[in-house]
Fold this sequence. Notes:
The chain crosses the membrane at residues 40-60. Keywords: Membrane, Transmembrane, Transmembrane helix. It contains 3 helices and 2 strands. By secondary structure, it is mainly alpha-helical. It has 2 domains: 1-59; 68-120, Roll (Membrane-bound Lytic Murein Transglycosylase D, Chain A). It has a two-stranded antiparallel ribbon with strand order 1-2. Helix 2 crosses helix 3 (93-104). The chain is rod-shaped.
Amino acid sequence: MKYSTYQSIFPMNLEKMQNVRNEREAQLVRTISNSLLPKLLILVIVAWIAGAGVLTVFAAPSVSNEEVTKLIVQPGDTLWQIASNHKPERMDTRVYIEGIVRINGLEDRGVQAGQVLKLPHF
Length: 122
């Protein structure tokens, strides 16, 4: 069939088809960026918070063996009471307890009467 009388009911407007295609591509890019951007932002925030937490844990000051005071644990004393009474004024008690645990090599947090503890100086 060399010649045909068939004529499509749809107009063959190539420019209009190209505009539709460009709009679909733009819509796809918007959809991807709208769904991916918040997820990426949340991932970055979570990673930042986790990194800050790790840095906080390891930020406790190191204690040298030369800067210590020895203390004999009295009956009824707890590590918390000892740390509260001997820590620097603005230091968190938990950080000071961690220093006591490190410098004395304590495996558990309990102390016994008569035990000699080294108290760090910060």
